[in-house]
Protein backbone atom coordinates (compact mmCIF):
# COMPACT_ATOMS: atom_id res chain seq x y z
CA UNK A 1 0.00 0.00 0.00
CA UNK A 2 1.13 3.52 -0.66
CA UNK A 3 2.14 5.67 2.29
CA UNK A 4 0.01 8.55 1.04
CA UNK A 5 -3.75 8.58 1.47
CA UNK A 6 -5.84 7.98 -1.54
CA UNK A 7 -7.58 11.09 -2.78
CA UNK A 8 -11.01 10.65 -4.35
CA UNK A 9 -11.67 12.85 -7.30
CA UNK A 10 -15.03 14.64 -7.35
CA UNK A 11 -17.56 12.96 -9.54
CA UNK A 12 -20.28 14.52 -11.64
CA UNK A 13 -22.82 13.94 -8.88
CA UNK A 14 -21.03 16.45 -6.67
CA UNK A 15 -22.91 19.28 -8.44
CA UNK A 16 -25.67 18.84 -5.90
CA UNK A 17 -23.32 19.80 -3.08
CA UNK A 18 -24.37 23.49 -2.99
CA UNK A 19 -28.00 22.47 -2.55
CA UNK A 20 -27.04 20.28 0.41
CA UNK A 21 -25.11 23.17 1.92
CA UNK A 22 -28.08 25.48 1.45
CA UNK A 23 -30.31 22.99 3.23
CA UNK A 24 -27.81 22.77 6.05
CA UNK A 25 -27.76 26.55 6.31
CA UNK A 26 -31.52 26.60 6.60
CA UNK A 27 -31.39 23.99 9.31
CA UNK A 28 -28.79 25.98 11.18
CA UNK A 29 -30.92 29.17 10.99
CA UNK A 30 -34.56 28.11 11.51
CA UNK A 31 -37.44 30.59 11.40
CA UNK A 32 -38.19 32.00 14.83
CA UNK A 33 -41.96 31.42 14.75
CA UNK A 34 -42.30 32.52 18.36
CA UNK A 35 -40.93 35.96 17.47
CA UNK A 36 -43.37 36.41 14.59
CA UNK A 37 -46.23 35.11 16.71
CA UNK A 38 -45.60 37.71 19.42
CA UNK A 39 -45.11 40.42 16.80
CA UNK A 40 -48.47 39.66 15.16
CA UNK A 41 -50.16 39.41 18.54
CA UNK A 42 -48.92 42.85 19.57
CA UNK A 43 -50.10 44.30 16.26
CA UNK A 44 -53.56 42.73 16.54
CA UNK A 45 -54.01 43.75 20.17
CA UNK A 46 -53.22 47.37 19.36
CA UNK A 47 -55.53 47.36 16.32
CA UNK A 48 -58.43 45.71 18.14
CA UNK A 49 -58.01 47.97 21.17
CA UNK A 50 -58.25 51.09 19.01
CA UNK A 51 -61.34 49.75 17.27
CA UNK A 52 -63.02 48.81 20.54
CA UNK A 53 -62.40 52.25 22.03
CA UNK A 54 -63.87 53.90 18.94
CA UNK A 55 -66.92 51.63 19.00
CA UNK A 56 -67.47 52.31 22.72
CA UNK A 57 -67.43 56.05 22.07
CA UNK A 58 -69.88 55.68 19.19
CA UNK A 59 -72.19 53.50 21.29
CA UNK A 60 -72.35 56.13 24.03
CA UNK A 61 -73.14 58.86 21.50
CA UNK A 62 -75.69 56.67 19.71
CA UNK A 63 -77.48 55.93 22.97
CA UNK A 64 -77.70 59.57 24.06
CA UNK A 65 -78.65 60.76 20.59
CA UNK A 66 -81.36 58.11 20.21
CA UNK A 67 -82.92 59.27 23.48
CA UNK A 68 -83.00 62.87 22.23
CA UNK A 69 -84.50 61.92 18.87
CA UNK A 70 -87.11 59.72 20.56
CA UNK A 71 -88.26 62.65 22.69
CA UNK A 72 -88.81 64.74 19.56
CA UNK A 73 -90.52 61.87 17.75
CA UNK A 74 -93.07 61.58 20.55
CA UNK A 75 -94.23 65.09 19.70
CA UNK A 76 -93.78 64.76 15.95
CA UNK A 77 -95.96 61.70 15.44
CA UNK A 78 -98.90 63.62 16.92
CA UNK A 79 -98.80 65.79 13.81
CA UNK A 80 -99.81 62.75 11.79
CA UNK A 81 -102.93 62.11 13.85
CA UNK A 82 -106.17 63.88 12.93
CA UNK A 83 -107.14 66.72 15.22
CA UNK A 84 -110.14 65.60 17.35
CA UNK A 85 -111.38 69.18 17.49
CA UNK A 86 -111.93 69.08 13.73
CA UNK A 87 -114.36 66.19 14.11
CA UNK A 88 -116.22 68.08 16.83
CA UNK A 89 -116.45 71.23 14.72
CA UNK A 90 -117.65 69.24 11.73
CA UNK A 91 -120.35 67.57 13.84
CA UNK A 92 -121.53 70.94 15.19
CA UNK A 93 -121.64 72.38 11.68
CA UNK A 94 -123.72 69.43 10.51
CA UNK A 95 -126.18 69.83 13.39
CA UNK A 96 -126.47 73.57 12.76
CA UNK A 97 -127.12 73.00 9.07
CA UNK A 98 -129.84 70.47 9.85
CA UNK A 99 -131.49 72.88 12.28
CA UNK A 100 -131.48 75.55 9.59
CA UNK A 101 -133.27 73.21 7.24
CA UNK A 102 -135.91 72.37 9.86
CA UNK A 103 -136.64 75.95 10.92
CA UNK A 104 -137.05 78.47 8.15
CA UNK A 105 -136.98 81.43 10.51
CA UNK A 106 -133.23 81.07 11.16
CA UNK A 107 -130.85 82.86 8.93
CA UNK A 108 -128.39 80.66 7.15
CA UNK A 109 -125.78 83.36 6.72
CA UNK A 110 -124.52 83.16 10.29
CA UNK A 111 -123.68 79.47 10.22
CA UNK A 112 -121.55 78.10 7.38
CA UNK A 113 -122.31 74.88 5.60
CA UNK A 114 -120.44 71.86 6.90
CA UNK A 115 -117.22 71.33 5.07
CA UNK A 116 -116.19 67.78 4.29
CA UNK A 117 -113.37 67.30 1.87
CA UNK A 118 -110.66 64.78 1.26
CA UNK A 119 -108.06 66.98 2.95
CA UNK A 120 -109.94 67.54 6.20
CA UNK A 121 -108.21 65.80 9.14
CA UNK A 122 -105.28 64.71 6.97
CA UNK A 123 -101.69 65.47 7.98
CA UNK A 124 -99.94 68.17 6.01
CA UNK A 125 -96.97 67.49 3.75
CA UNK A 126 -94.71 69.34 6.17
CA UNK A 127 -95.80 67.14 9.06
CA UNK A 128 -95.13 64.02 7.02
CA UNK A 129 -91.71 65.34 6.00
CA UNK A 130 -90.74 66.08 9.62
CA UNK A 131 -91.69 62.60 10.74
CA UNK A 132 -89.82 60.98 7.86
CA UNK A 133 -86.65 62.89 8.72
CA UNK A 134 -86.78 62.24 12.44
CA UNK A 135 -87.80 58.60 12.30
CA UNK A 136 -85.15 57.92 9.65
CA UNK A 137 -82.62 59.59 11.93
CA UNK A 138 -83.69 57.36 14.81
CA UNK A 139 -83.43 54.20 12.70
CA UNK A 140 -79.93 55.16 11.52
CA UNK A 141 -78.79 55.80 15.10
CA UNK A 142 -80.17 52.49 16.32
CA UNK A 143 -78.67 50.64 13.36
CA UNK A 144 -75.25 52.14 14.11
CA UNK A 145 -75.56 50.95 17.72
CA UNK A 146 -76.51 47.46 16.56
CA UNK A 147 -73.65 47.39 14.09
CA UNK A 148 -71.23 48.54 16.79
CA UNK A 149 -72.27 45.68 19.07
CA UNK A 150 -71.83 43.20 16.23
CA UNK A 151 -68.36 44.55 15.44
CA UNK A 152 -67.30 44.06 19.06
CA UNK A 153 -68.48 40.46 18.85
CA UNK A 154 -66.47 39.91 15.66
CA UNK A 155 -63.36 41.37 17.25
CA UNK A 156 -63.73 39.16 20.30
CA UNK A 157 -63.85 36.07 18.09
CA UNK A 158 -60.90 37.37 16.08
CA UNK A 159 -58.76 37.59 19.22
CA UNK A 160 -59.95 34.28 20.68
CA UNK A 161 -56.96 32.39 22.05
CA UNK A 162 -56.21 28.85 20.83
CA UNK A 163 -53.56 26.49 22.24
CA UNK A 164 -51.32 25.95 19.23
CA UNK A 165 -47.66 25.95 18.43
CA UNK A 166 -46.04 29.21 17.41
CA UNK A 167 -45.97 28.17 13.77
CA UNK A 168 -49.63 27.16 13.73
CA UNK A 169 -50.55 30.32 15.64
CA UNK A 170 -48.97 32.44 12.92
CA UNK A 171 -50.87 30.53 10.25
CA UNK A 172 -54.16 30.84 12.14
CA UNK A 173 -53.63 34.54 12.69
CA UNK A 174 -52.92 35.13 9.02
CA UNK A 175 -56.02 33.15 8.09
CA UNK A 176 -58.16 35.28 10.41
CA UNK A 177 -56.58 38.53 9.28
CA UNK A 178 -57.14 37.76 5.61
CA UNK A 179 -60.78 36.97 6.42
CA UNK A 180 -61.06 40.26 8.29
CA UNK A 181 -59.92 42.13 5.19
CA UNK A 182 -61.86 40.01 2.70
CA UNK A 183 -65.14 40.56 4.56
CA UNK A 184 -64.58 44.35 4.77
CA UNK A 185 -64.53 44.69 8.56
CA UNK A 186 -62.29 47.81 8.37
CA UNK A 187 -64.76 49.38 5.93
CA UNK A 188 -67.65 48.58 8.27
CA UNK A 189 -65.74 50.22 11.11
CA UNK A 190 -65.26 53.32 8.96
CA UNK A 191 -68.98 53.28 8.06
CA UNK A 192 -70.13 53.49 11.69
CA UNK A 193 -69.29 57.18 12.34
CA UNK A 194 -70.57 58.13 8.88
CA UNK A 195 -73.92 56.52 9.71
CA UNK A 196 -74.16 58.46 12.95
CA UNK A 197 -73.23 61.70 11.21
CA UNK A 198 -75.94 61.10 8.61
CA UNK A 199 -78.40 60.50 11.44
CA UNK A 200 -77.42 63.81 13.03
CA UNK A 201 -77.82 65.71 9.75
CA UNK A 202 -81.29 64.22 9.22
CA UNK A 203 -82.29 65.26 12.73
CA UNK A 204 -81.09 68.84 12.20
CA UNK A 205 -82.99 69.06 8.91
CA UNK A 206 -86.15 67.87 10.61
CA UNK A 207 -85.59 70.29 13.49
CA UNK A 208 -85.40 73.26 11.13
CA UNK A 209 -88.55 72.12 9.33
CA UNK A 210 -90.36 71.65 12.63
CA UNK A 211 -89.42 75.13 13.84
CA UNK A 212 -90.73 76.69 10.62
CA UNK A 213 -94.03 75.02 11.45
CA UNK A 214 -94.07 76.70 14.87
CA UNK A 215 -92.28 80.05 14.59
CA UNK A 216 -90.52 81.32 11.43
CA UNK A 217 -88.32 83.79 13.33
CA UNK A 218 -86.89 81.14 15.64
CA UNK A 219 -86.54 78.82 12.67
CA UNK A 220 -84.50 81.42 10.79
CA UNK A 221 -82.03 81.83 13.66
CA UNK A 222 -81.63 78.08 14.14
CA UNK A 223 -81.26 77.60 10.38
CA UNK A 224 -78.27 79.94 10.32
CA UNK A 225 -76.63 77.99 13.16
CA UNK A 226 -77.32 74.65 11.49
CA UNK A 227 -75.96 76.01 8.21
CA UNK A 228 -72.73 77.06 9.94
CA UNK A 229 -72.35 73.59 11.47
CA UNK A 230 -72.92 71.85 8.15
CA UNK A 231 -70.55 74.24 6.37
CA UNK A 232 -67.78 73.42 8.85
CA UNK A 233 -68.50 69.72 8.41
CA UNK A 234 -68.26 69.91 4.62
CA UNK A 235 -65.10 72.06 4.64
CA UNK A 236 -63.33 69.82 7.18
CA UNK A 237 -64.27 66.79 5.10
CA UNK A 238 -62.94 68.00 1.76
CA UNK A 239 -59.95 70.00 3.08
CA UNK A 240 -57.56 66.97 3.22
CA UNK A 241 -58.14 66.45 -0.50
CA UNK A 242 -56.44 69.79 -1.20
CA UNK A 243 -53.66 69.68 1.39
CA UNK A 244 -51.74 66.65 2.56
CA UNK A 245 -50.73 68.48 5.74
CA UNK A 246 -54.35 69.02 6.78
CA UNK A 247 -55.05 67.02 9.97
CA UNK A 248 -58.83 66.86 9.39
CA UNK A 249 -58.68 63.27 8.15
CA UNK A 250 -61.70 61.05 8.68
CA UNK A 251 -63.29 58.03 6.96
CA UNK A 252 -65.40 60.27 4.74
CA UNK A 253 -62.41 62.45 3.83
CA UNK A 254 -60.35 59.37 2.95
CA UNK A 255 -63.20 58.24 0.70
CA UNK A 256 -62.98 61.57 -1.16
CA UNK A 257 -59.18 61.43 -1.40
CA UNK A 258 -59.18 57.91 -2.81
Automatic annotation (TrEMBL):
Residues 1-26 are annotated as: Disordered. Keywords: Membrane, Transmembrane, Transmembrane helix. The chain crosses the membrane at residues 57-74, 132-151, 181-204, 210-235. Coiled coil: none annotated. The keyword Transmembrane applies. It comes from the Eukaryota. The keyword RNA-binding does not apply. Residues 33-212 form the DUF6535 domain. This is DUF6535 domain-containing protein.
